[in-house]
Amino acid sequence: MSLFDRAELAPADPILGLTEAFNADTRPEKVNLGVGVYLGEDGKLPLMAAVRSAEERVTQQHKPKAYLGIDGMPAYRDAVRALIFGADSAALADGRIATVQTLGGTGALKVGADLLHQLSPEATVLISDPSWENHRALFTRAGFTVDAYRYYDAEAKGIDVDGMLEDLRAAAEGTVVVLHACCHNPTGYDLTGEQWDAVIDVLRERGLVPFLDMAYQGFGFGIAEDGAVVTKFIDSGLNFLLSTSYSKSFSLYGERIGSLSVVLGSAEEAKKVLSQLKIVVRTNYSNPPTEGAALVTTVLTDPELRQSWEDELGSMRERIKTLRQGLVDALAARGISDMGFIAEQLGMFSYSGLTKDQMIALRTEHGVYGLDSGRMCVAALNTGNLDYVADAIASVRG
Ligand code: PMP
């Protein structure tokens, strides 16, 4: 009897497992709308022009592959902190923000979760209903009880703000609240500025611990516009955690590059928290990799590359909007006029409102892969597959 006989066969990951099924599908017309990846008009993952230039520069330097510090590359931390908080942020100048380079957004969430669990093991973590699948799994694995606050209003095709506020008001002091900073995954519905203010008031009144997850900055309305929620939290005076990911906005999925910041009341507190974050990192993977950090830093700190990056990200954002409208129009042309909300949603995803059975039929009958929840990645559409997808949706809608 081996110890490993105790290991049960786990179900495939709901999102990545779908890609495995997609890869195994031999139908040439198949379309993968499962995973959250932006694909270009040619159906391929783009290498952004600024990233390509940065890569050439970094390669030419032929630097030896030294270890980074536990908290990552100092120039990277400075560059992303300026991006997230603004170069002239008073909180940054005061030294009130502890930041570590992380393995993508997921790594940031896990480092944050481990820190929180060490400080407050009994706390409950609240995520939105629904949320990115991995939120629940990740915080559960980190040792927390995970519950949900109301978010999506299926009837109204929007956010149940009153329900959300009511659930937050009912939460015990010290509860960790995971909030999508922009481009909510999976619904594509974001709070307005005023609604954020109301949420922040409740977080403050109830003594809750906000954990902002920002994986799609730049995909909603723009880098500054999407980042405005961070300024709101800074201005609120609350302590909060913020995870960021550069997987999508730099198309650097495989480099695993992101950051975790904890905004605190004083430089002294930030120093202590940073020392704890370093223990979490050190005991997990010691220190982060260099390549992604070098690329993001080079792009963000070179004015020409930065402009090119912002422009290209802007055209990706606009193209997704065009695809959304294109899908709405194509569906309308097939007699489906109640899916216009797809054009209102933000970011890479559309919560289509299709049922699990319809999503399964899309997959089995048409080779169009989306999540059982009805989530589809509209950023993987293109003019070549849009009509096919619209036909497939029209067919499963019956
Ligand atoms: N948070 C959310 C809401 C996400 O959608 C994702 C990526 N799908 C992540 C975090 C993780 O990002 P990364 O791929 O950089 O780990």
Automatic annotation (TrEMBL):
Q: What SUPFAM superfamilies does this protein map onto? A: PLP-dependent transferases
Enzyme Commission number, as recorded:
2.6.1.-
Aminotransferase class I/classII large domain residues are 29-393
Q: Which GO terms describe its molecular function?
A: identical protein binding; L-tyrosine-2-oxoglutarate transaminase activity; pyridoxal phosphate binding
PROSITE patterns reported for this sequence: AA_TRANSFER_CLASS_1
One Pfam assignment? Aminotran_1_2
Cofactors demanded by this protein = pyridoxal 5'-phosphate
Q: What keywords sit in the KW lines?
A: Aminotransferase, Pyridoxal phosphate, Transferase
Tell me, which GO biological process terms does this entry list? L-phenylalanine biosynthetic process from chorismate via phenylpyruvate
Instruction: Report the GO terms under cellular component.
Output: cytosol
Q: Which InterPro entries match?
A: Aminotransferase_I/II_large (IPR004839), Asp_trans (IPR000796), NHTrfase_class1_PyrdxlP-BS (IPR004838), PyrdxlP-dep_Trfase (IPR015424), PyrdxlP-dep_Trfase_major (IPR015421), PyrdxlP-dep_Trfase_small (IPR015422)
Family per UniProt?
Answer: Belongs to the class-I pyridoxal-phosphate-dependent aminotransferase family.
Q: What does the record note on quaternary structure? A: Homodimer.
Name the record gives this protein: Aminotransferase
UniProt organism field: Tessaracoccus aquimaris
